[in-house]
User: Which sequence fits this backbone?
């Protein structure tokens, strides 16, 4: 928002903090329970941040919609309306994510199991913090707007004739709007107007809908073809950078040594006195006999 009162920068920052709290809580709980921390778990906070920010925008959008539905509604009814609209979407997305990651704990790979446990638990706490901590932050931010307070300093913003004669930039940053009038209500967000008045009607046109169906059919056909072409296995060349020595190594290995089959190794599992010359000769003779 351009208004210094309606700007929700701190609200967005608290949404990110909510995701961070979920990560800290889940990681602390898993470490307390003795779940091993592996390197792949370091990727989990980015997943939680993405889902948490998405839930944050859903909550804020529902709050804005509730203000337009009921002009003179109190905070409790607006928050109830917000949860009625947003909680279902947040619950469904969280439930599917948690289910997917907890199913991943059935794998036989310990590293994958730890990653799924950490991430799935973090999604649960992200859901809890979104519906509790972030809901309270929305109410506090609403009280700041009702008190006509600045978004950065939370100080009351006043309007007088001297301030109204200042520049547009001064009025927008210190009063509330370029006109010098600090209104607590604004019109619908431009992005919402675009999707409602232009994007939606464009896609409801019958020719556009037919085109969308054709494009989706082509996409579906390409996806089926791609699934048919998938082969099991992994090429280790794809795990290295383009200028790595690993790539020519595997090229030469396949070119000159692929016909010899896998290497055979001999492992001595018991303690051996390698300092004894007789023992070393015995190991050498054993190796020669195996060859």
Assistant:
């Amino acid at each position: 928002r351009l208004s210094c009162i309606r700007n929700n920068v701190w609200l967005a920052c608290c949404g990110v903090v909510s995701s961070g709290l979920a990560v800290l809580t889940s990681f602390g709980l898993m470490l307390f329970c003795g779940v091993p921390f592996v390197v792949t778990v370091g990727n989990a906070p980015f997943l939680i941040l993405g889902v948490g920010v998405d839930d944050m925008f859903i909550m804020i959008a529902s709050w804005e919609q509730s203000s337009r539905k009921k002009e003179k509604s109190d905070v409790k009814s607006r928050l109830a309306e917000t949860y009625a609209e947003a909680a279902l979407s947040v619950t469904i997305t969280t439930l599917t994510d948690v289910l997917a990651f907890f199913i991943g704990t059935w794998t036989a790979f310990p590293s994958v199991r730890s990653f799924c446990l950490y991430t799935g638990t973090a999604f649960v706490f992200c859901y809890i913090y979104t519906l509790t901590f972030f809901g309270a932050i929305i109410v506090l931010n609403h009280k700041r707007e009702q008190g006509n307070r600045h978004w950065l300093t939370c100080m009351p913003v006043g309007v007088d004739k001297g301030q109204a004669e200042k520049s547009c930039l001064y009025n927008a940053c210190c009063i509330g709007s370029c006109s010098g009038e600090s209104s607590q209500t604004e019109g619908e967000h431009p992005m919402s107007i675009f999707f409602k008045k232009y994007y939606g009607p464009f896609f409801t046109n019958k020719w556009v809908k037919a085109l969308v169906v054709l494009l989706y059919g082509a996409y579906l056909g390409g996806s089926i073809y791609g699934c048919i072409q998938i082969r099991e296995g992994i090429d280790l060349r794809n795990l290295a950078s383009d200028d790595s020595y690993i790539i020519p190594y595997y090229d030469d290995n396949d070119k000159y040594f692929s016909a010899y089959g896998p290497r055979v190794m001999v492992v001595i599992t018991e303690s051996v006195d390698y300092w004894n010359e007789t023992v070393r000769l015995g190991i050498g003779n054993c190796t020669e006999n195996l060859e």
User: Anything to note?
Assistant: Residues 75-103 form the longest helix (29 residues).
